[in-house]
Amino acid sequence: MADLIVWGIWISLFVISYFVGTYREKAHFANIVEREKKLVSLPALSMKCPDDRVVVKAELVMGSVVIGGDFFKQVVANLASVFGMRISVAEAMVDRARREAVLRMKEKAVGADAILNVRIDGLKIGARNKITGIEAMACGTAVYYAK
Amino acid sequence: MEITNIETIPGKTITTHFGLVCGSTVRSKNAFKDIGASIKNMFGGELKNYTRLLDDTRQEAISRMIEHATSLGANAIVNVRFATSDIAAGAAEIYIYGTAVRVE
Fold it and tell me: What secondary structure does DSSP assign to A18-83, as a single string?
């Protein structure tokens, strides 16, 4: 009987976390796409040299975010790591984290004309065999050209 | 203090190099806040506590680097790099380093 209850909780958690996690992921992706469209005029480049124009100001900008994995993802990732498969749920998670980090960095560079030398760095949070969360950090040099 | 992660400060010339300056901080998570995070972790989404924690940690590391550079008499830091490492379960080190210079 007790086993049945434990399994019941486990399965309902698995199903609920799948639906809630997917819903939130979709909402987040929609939000990212919308903000990316708004900030498309501010390019984030991986080049180091600014254009041949007079730069009035340059500063370091960065943005970071920690995205947590849900219960469903952890179970799927554990299963997939047995068979050596591509873990698409984790791919979506890191993609989301990186794009959000770049967006936050762009949002901090208000009025800048370009962001040079953008680097994206990451950190895994949690125990070795679990995906508790993924941190993504983007940093670059925002340059302001003379008008 | 001007900080960039490219080799120069655009529009200015570097007159003196002071060598490498660095700042680091080691922070651990708050076990009480972690309870909230673990509940949130069931359903995914952003973990705002962790975001804030890492952000604060980076700011602190940067201000330590700036302190180091100011003590040398520099007025800018170029080529800044970030490094992170897990040193223990639940603790992370953030290490920031760059080249202190004087620009005109």
Answer: HHHHHHHHHHHHHHHHHHHHHTTTS-B-S--PPPSS-EEEEEEEEEEEEEEEEHHHHHHHHHHHHH
- Parent domain of A16: 2-145
Give how many domains chain A has, as a whole number: 1
A25-43: per-residue pLDDT in tens? 899 999 999 999 999 888 8
**How many structural domains are present in chain B?**
1
State the CATH number of the domain containing residue B18. 3.30.110.70
CB pairs under 8 A between A and B: 109
Expressed as residue numbers, the domain containing B7 is 2-103
Domain CATH code at residue A88: 3.30.110.70
The whole-angstrom separation of Cα B79 and Cα B99 is 6
pTM over 0.90: no
Spell out, as residue ranges, where chain B has pLDDT lower than 70.
33, 37, 90
CA separation for the pair A49, B92 (Å, rounded): 33
List CB contacts (< 8 A) between A127 and chain B. 89
The shortest C-alpha distance from A11 to chain B (Å) reads 13
Which ipTM value was assigned to this complex? 0.84
